[in-house]
Recover the amino acids of this structure.
């Protein structure tokens, strides 16, 4: 009887205890309950959660600001965490309740597609960490529609996100911003396509820059602003005019609605400056401009925004031999130029830089009349002659044929070397072609003329052998003039001559055009034979026949 009574008593006590203690579910920390604040102390808050005993929340679960604001009677959400002491006080956690509430929100957002708001807090491997109340992972592929070069710029910024993966047990949340942006872009694209048509002005943001142009986001759809449509003037690279993120107003040039391709123009918003070019730029006018580009063949000058002219390399200096425009000007230089030619239809203007200064070649004829003697230093030696510096930037040319009367000269270097000072005579000045002709041999008498004044055909002269060949010998007949005795004109075809031998010859022929003299040795003996025959006939009383030219010449020499 007694045992039964005891058992019954124990059973009743256990049932009574269940009424005073939380349920197993409540004690597990998986359920949020609401309670009312009954008392506030320095270390804890006493909260009535609807059980036989009150619960305790440690003060450290509140911020100092929250502790100042909270008062007795306020309602708070908590999780029953544990039994705190032997008296049955219940341990409560406000932080765990807040965490469970966040997970509920995340789970609902995952199921319904609702958005969650969060702040990007740091970079992690493969993406970014985002605080949405709990830590969530934002993969790099889900940050934006296109890869972002510097994701660090996003740290600290707050956005809306879509939950794309959710696992509360593992504490794993994956979110995406890309899905949201794609939806927004599609909505924006629909509105943009409704108002887009050729000829209208639209605003957009520079999205990407390439060497051939920039892509502009018009609102859900991109348009291309080609480099040729950016400015009426020269643009070397689009980055000179734009940077990513710039807002620009452009004109729709072409729009293919089916292909969703948009061609844009910026220069088309303003007037084409070439429309008025012929009014502002006349041939002969001197204007100022800025060097904007250099090429091997010349320099481009910007006269105004959209109008450029070319200074050809040949129009840069009257006297200097310019090998490259960079030797005369640099990009950015302000220059004064003269308009030489204008072609509005082909949008071309030819400019001259040297024409803004006096032409020194025009002054040369007055300064150096033909026949004037000049002195200068040899600046260069070529196969065809010597270049002699007469004035700064002006060279005179002494052709090889004008160096000496000696026709044996093969190369000017036989007489001169670079740097030698030389005196020459002015032969001709062509200011239009910028040619200054000089001569050295002209300063002395022409030995050929002297030779022609002293000798004629059929004259007998003494000459010195200067060269021997297989076909004959060359002999010196006067100064630098040589004559040829062909082998057929030898008295003995087998006779050998040596350089320096002195021989007598008769002048057979003289060519003034080629300045050549043909000589003969055997003609001397032939002339002597004829003379002997004439003398014999004279002794016998015969009437002498008319002597030939060679015989007459021989008698004249006697």
């Amino acid at each position: 009887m007694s045992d039964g009574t005891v058992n019954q008593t124990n059973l009743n006590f256990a049932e009574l205890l269940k009424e005073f203690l939380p349920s197993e579910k409540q004690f597990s920390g998986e359920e949020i309950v609401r309670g009312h604040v009954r008392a506030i102390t320095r270390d804890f808050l006493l909260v009535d959660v609807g059980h036989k005993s009150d619960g305790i929340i440690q003060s450290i679960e509140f911020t100092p600001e929250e502790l100042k604001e909270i008062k007795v009677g306020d309602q708070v959400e908590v999780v029953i965490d544990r039994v705190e002491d032997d008296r049955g006080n219940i341990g409560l956690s406000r932080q765990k309740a807040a965490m469970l509430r966040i997970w509920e929100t995340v789970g609902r957002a995952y199921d319904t597609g609702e958005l969650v708001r969060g702040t990007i807090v740091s970079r992690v491997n493969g993406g970014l960490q985002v605080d949405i109340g709990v830590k969530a992972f934002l993969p790099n592929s889900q940050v934006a529609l296109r890869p972002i070069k510097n994701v660090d710029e996003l740290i600290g910024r707050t956005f809306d996100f879509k939950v794309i993966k959710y696992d509360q047990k593992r504490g794993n949340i994956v979110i995406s911003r890309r899905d949201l942006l794609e939806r927004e872009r599609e909505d924006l694209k629909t509105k943009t396509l409704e108002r887009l048509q050729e000829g209208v002005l639209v605003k957009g943001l520079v999205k990407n820059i390439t060497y051939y142009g920039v892509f502009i986001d018009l609102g859900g759809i991109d348009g291309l602003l080609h480099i040729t449509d950016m400015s009426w003037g020269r643009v070397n690279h689009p980055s000179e005019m734009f940077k990513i993120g710039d807002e620009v107003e452009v004109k729709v040039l072409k729009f293919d609605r089916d292909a969703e391709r948009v061609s844009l123009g910026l220069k088309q918003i303003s007037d084409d400056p070439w429309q008025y070019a012929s009014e502002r730029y006349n041939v002969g006018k001197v204007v100022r401009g800025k060097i904007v580009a250099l090429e091997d063949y010349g320099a481009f000058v910007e006269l105004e925004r959209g109008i450029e002219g070319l200074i050809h390399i040949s129009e840069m200096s009257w006297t200097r031999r310019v090998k490259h425009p960079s030797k005369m000007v640099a990009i950015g230089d302000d220059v004064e130029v003269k308009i030489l030619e204008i072609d509005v239809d082909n949008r071309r203007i030819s400019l001259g830089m040297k024409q803004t200064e006096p032409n020194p070649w025009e002054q040369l004829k007055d300064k150096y009349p033909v026949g004037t003697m000049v002195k200068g230093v040899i600046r260069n030696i070529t196969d065809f002659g010597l270049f002699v510096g007469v004035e700064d930037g002006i060279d005179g040319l002494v052709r090889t044929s004008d160096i000496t009367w000696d026709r044996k000269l093969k190369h000017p270097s036989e007489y001169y070397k670079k740097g030698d000072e030389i005196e020459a005579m002015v032969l001709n000045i062509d200011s239009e072609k910028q040619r200054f002709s000089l001569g050295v041999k002209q300063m002395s008498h022409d030995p050929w003329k002297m030779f022609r004044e002293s000798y004629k055909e059929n004259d007998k002269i003494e000459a010195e052998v200067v060269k021997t060949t297989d076909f004959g010998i060359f002999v010196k007949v006067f100064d630098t003039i040589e004559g040829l005795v062909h082998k057929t004109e030898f008295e003995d075809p087998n006779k050998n001559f040596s350089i320096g031998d002195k021989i007598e010859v008769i002048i057979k022929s003289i060519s003034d055009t080629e300045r050549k003299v043909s000589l003969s040795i055997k003609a001397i003996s032939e002339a002597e034979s004829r003379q002997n025959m004439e003398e014999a006939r004279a002794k016998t009383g015969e009437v002498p026949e008319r002597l030939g030219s060679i015989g007459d010449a021989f008698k004249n020499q006697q």
Notes: The radius of gyration is 56 Å.
